[in-house]
Amino acid sequence: MQTLAALQNGQLSSITRLQLAENLTELPNEIFDLADTLEVLDLSNNCLSSLPDDFGRLVQLKILFLSNNQFETLPKVLADCPKLEMIGFKANKIHTVDEDALPVQTRWLILTDNQIEALPESMGQLHRLQKLALAGNCLSALPASMANCKKLELVRLSANKLTHIPDWLLQLPRLAWLAFDGNRLSCTDKITLSVPEMLKVKMTDIDLAEQLGEGASGVIYKGKWNHQPISLHGTPDLIAVKLFKGEVTSDGYPADELACCLQAGEHPNLIRVISQINEQEHLGLVMELIPPSFFNLGLPPSLQTCTRDTFASGAQFSVSQIAKILQQMAATMTHLHQQAVSHGDLYAHNTMINGDAEMLFGDFGASSDLSVLPQLQREAMQAIEVRAFGCLLEDLLLANEKHLSDEAALSGKQALLSVLLQMRDSCLHDEFALRPRFFEISEQLALAVSKQVSEALL
């Protein structure tokens, strides 16, 4: 992070990225001295409520973050920036988004945790829009013009006031990650599920140790029972504890995540939840501690990849490993949809594997309860997640492209690789009704893996 003094003294000339957090109430005029080079501007955590009329002078600006400020209206001057494509106004006080306030080249729009009641019809002009975060607002509907946003891939609508999910949204050809819990949805053919009560424990029952990880909805700690419930006697003392953040996260309400996690129930490839913490000051999950032999399959998307995962340099997986991981994922997703739960965040970075390609899947921050949807929409939600599965498969194939090609040629695994390539194409089909269902994917992978093993033994 830079300083205002350095900016005003001319020490930051020709920089491409600028981050200032000094309780600013207006945009420093010296920022315009950087107009020829500045591509990323982060003025989050200030006290700004407006932008100057000539903001469009920042002709090279591509990314703008203004989270945790005091904006009540999305500034119309954003549309004057010829290259601006990523915009973040999380946690402001925005209630109004005017027509044509956004650049038509917008790819990534973050308006989480505001007070927006309606979006303009001009949203439909955002033909490049891929990622849209609207959780924690007051939206009761979406503009029908957004059916023209054919490149939308990730949408967060949780914690709003929607009474229904529009069919056109579920039919967008590239939509793969959707979250909508915490709305006012109702339908005539809602299904009733029997969800067993989860054991409740207190924070005083647990000693927290080091932090293991952090996501949008919470922080995960290593823990140890200092007062283990009788029903858990005989299970390990060491546990993992996820404590949820605040009232609204980028994916929705923590209480909804907890409910979906419990509704999902148990599966061999789901990180096992053994109890919940549901106190006034603490909401969380107590989970089995994942063995240290497990590691993340991938890394989160970058600013450049937008919606697609990245992978550690040198990470390499064989055809058989990829097939085994995907077989387990398909079985897990079959289970979740049988429980009327969509995960909403089917990604490599939420997937853990070990050296034997055994898989564990978790993080229900973007999950949604599908029981509140009509049957046809529940089926469409599965097709959306099948596309996310196809993206995972495609990312793994691309990250290992040369290695897989060489391996297939040398070890006779071309048939298994061909199955994966065909599966990728069918899962990514633009027509959601033509994508396979998870149980079909699971069966096809099981057959292909079994056949490959049999041939290897001959």
From TrEMBL:
**Superkingdom in the source lineage:** Bacteria
Which residue intervals define the domain Protein kinase in the entry? Answer: 206-458
The entry's ATP-binding residues are: K242
Which UniProt key words apply to this protein?
ATP-binding, Kinase, Leucine-rich repeat, Nucleotide-binding, Repeat, Transferase
Kindly list the GO molecular function terms attached to this UniProt entry: kinase activity
Which PANTHER family would you find in this protein's record?
PTHR48051, RAS SUPPRESSOR PROTEIN 1
Please report the name of this protein according to its UniProt entry: Leucine-rich repeat-containing serine/threonine-protein kinase
- Organism of origin is Shewanella eurypsychrophilus
